[in-house]
Amino acid sequence: MGRLLIIGAGGVGNVAAHKCAARKEVFDYICLASRTKSKCDAIKEKIKHNVGRDDIVTDQLDADDPNQVAAMIKKHNVETVLNVALPYQDLSIMKGCLMAGANYVDTANYEPPEEAKFCYKWQWDMHDDFKKAGLTALLGSGFDPGVTSVFTAYALKHEFDEIHYLDIVDANAGDHGHPFATNFNPEINIREITQRGKYWEDGQWKETDPLSVHKTFDFPSVGPKEMYLMYHEELECITKHIPTIKRARFWMTFSENYLNHLRVLQNVGMTRIDEVEYEGHKIVPLKFLKALLPDPGTLGVNYTGKTCIGCIIKGVKDGKEKTYFVYNVCDHAQCFKEVEAQAVSYTTGVPAMIGTKMIAEKTWQGPGVFNMEEFDPDPFMRDLNLYGLPWQEIRS
Q1: Domain extent listing, the chain
Q2: Would strands 368-371 and 136-139 be described as parallel, antiparallel, or unpaired?
Q3: pLDDT surpasses 80 at 183
């Protein structure tokens, strides 16, 4: 049986903990830890009510400290750590896993706190350390990144001889009823959106001004939405591991209301990530803004509408060009009914459980640091259908 430590008690942590708790045949021992133990205790009570499992253990942890992470792993004798905390903490948690001898899974790649930049180099540099220790680190087991990489690997295995063009499209057509809110951690979300766009074409990275490239796309079950070109981390690993790709882009939808609020916040300096002096104290404006905005974990109560996320893939099969669209549609209200979370948290938390399940059951294994597209996609695709994120296909 698998002994699991889940680090993080936000919206995604809530979903991942629910989903892992429902798989007692895989995870017979679960410890949920966070800097604020009361948040873990609240999730524990929800799991008892929604899943009927009352043996979840909670603990307090400062995940910035690798020594504390290692001590927590040893204290609870866990084999695998699922990191659904902040991307800033990826490296410290990975170091703790190496120190204590545990496998590692996360949903987003490392990002330095002082710079709005994310790339896989820092984590890829730990490959030899994990390999030498005989441990597995699985990176980016969310939806995007995560499922989008698995979708692409599945398409290459079953639909194409070569993939040439990849467009990852992400639409949230839901309504949470707030004038302005982010669907996951406001600090991480706004840092991601306000940086320059970037895409892969003809063997090199090309940059664009933030949200300057956009077009309308008709999403299944959602309808026409304006989507904006952004940089997203799975572009880096997918183009590395599938070198036939000539162009890879990532697109996300935003309402005009959202963009108007974001422009005002940028204009007045509230999205800055450097420290400013305020009444004798040093504060980071974006961190202060995060404290003012609604907690993403609380948005699900009255959330209506759906998300649609998928991969539009073009390439060659048997000498002929073809297009393949694989996607998932997720309903906010249904997610809240099941696990008291909105669909953006759900679409990240479910793949986090599945990726951890792949490692715990040794369906995916091998010492080192790996991205999702490096493993056999079939068992993961099967589990998406089984555990709440069924996928659909369109061929042309």
Answers
A1: 2-142+348-380, 147-339
A2: parallel
A3: no
DSSP-assigned letters across all residues of 141-158: -BTTTBHHHHHHHHHHHH
pLDDT band at 263 (very low <50, low <70, confident <90, very high): confident
Indicate the pairing of strand 281-283 with strand 276-278.
antiparallel
pLDDT tens digits along 218-233: 999 999 999 999 999 9
Q: Are strands 103-106 and 80-83 parallel, antiparallel or unpaired?
A: parallel
Strand pairing category for 136-139 and 103-106 = parallel
Contact 275, 284 (CB under 8 A): yes
- Per-position b or e across 226-247, b if 16+ CB within 10 A of its CB: ebbbbbbbbbbbbbebbeebbe
Question: Is residue 300 a contact partner of residue 335, using CB atoms and an 8 Å limit?
Answer: yes
H/E stretch holding 282 reads strand 281-283
- Among 168-172, 291-295, 317-321, name the one with the lowest average pLDDT: 291-295
- Identify the bridge partners of residue 59 per DSSP, sorted by sequence position: 33
Q: Packing angle between helix 332-339 and helix 343-360, nearest 10 degrees?
A: 60
CATH class of the region 2-142+348-380: alpha beta
Residue linked to tokens 């040893």: 74
- Does this model's pTM top 0.85? yes
What number of residues does the chain have? Answer: 396
* CATH 3.30.70.3270 fits domain 147-339: no
Q: 315: helix, coil or strand?
A: strand
Cis peptide, bond prior to residue 351, ω within 30 of zero: no
